[in-house]
Request: fold
Amino acid sequence: MSRPPLPPFTEESAREKVRLAEDGWNSRDPARVALAYTEQTEWRNRAEFPRGRAQAQAFLERKWAKELDYRLIKELWAFTDNRIAVRYAYEYRDDSGNWFRAYGNENWEFATDGLMQRRFASINEQPIREEERIFRWPLGRRPDHHPSLSDLGL
Reply:
């Protein structure tokens, strides 16, 4: 199984890879998203360290059970042959109706088949009021015309 675009990345293929990852995560489908990672993938996500695709999928199941109405924007920061750095922001609410905006950076490393073998995330979040939300598209893929993080000044 391969997951194009494949390394080595160009600017165009790195941007495409970032958008495909964003689309996947906005699906909030843990089984679908987990298929983008190698069987032996290694993650660091805050204080959690999933190892392997099954643990990554379980992590995502827990995440999206708590982070409701999740909407994400990712943006390419830098790339090399088989590595991509992104910055991102996402908004969600908890089951009490409290809204949050999270900001983060991820470093990704890919196997030759285009599956992500390493994902290191650093994330900060802040509470926001419902009226401060700016990611208001219908759940799912961010529309192509929606502003990017840079366009939004984030």
